[in-house]
Write a structure and sequence with these properties.
Blueprint (H helix, E strand, L loop, with lengths): L1 H4 L3 H7 L3 H4 L6 E7 L12 E9 L6 E9 L9 E8 H7 L2
Antiparallel strand pairs: 1-2, 2-3, 3-4
Length: about 100
């Protein structure tokens, strides 16, 4: 998300203004369903980790998201975990084909 959108919160909010990601805004509840292992970084990227989050939106049906986090290697955010991608799990299967 950060690389594609220029890294600003404002860019992300504009990008996320759709029915799927919009369901996260004012959600009734969210829970971490599963946290994956930390995948060691390489010469070109930092450590990565996936987190599955179940979401109960303010309206509509429950949703599940797969968040991939990546640890930043360079200053000024060195050591911080940033969102690499967030996928609605119902759509994730088609991306593996």
């Amino acid at each position: 998300c950060r690389a594609a959108l220029g890294g600003s919160l404002e860019s992300f909010v504009l990008y996320a203004s759709n029915p799927t990601f919009g369901s996260m805004i004012n959600a009734k509840k969210w829970t971490k369903a599963k946290v994956g292992p930390i995948i060691a970084g390489t010469n070109t990227r930092g450590d990565m980790q996936t987190v599955i989050v179940d979401l109960k939106p303010a309206s509509g049906r429950d949703r599940r998201f797969l968040w991939t986090m990546q640890q930043e290697r360079r200053p000024p955010r060195q050591g911080c975990w940033l969102v690499h991608e967030c996928i609605y799990v119902e759509n994730a299967y088609s991306l593996t084909l």
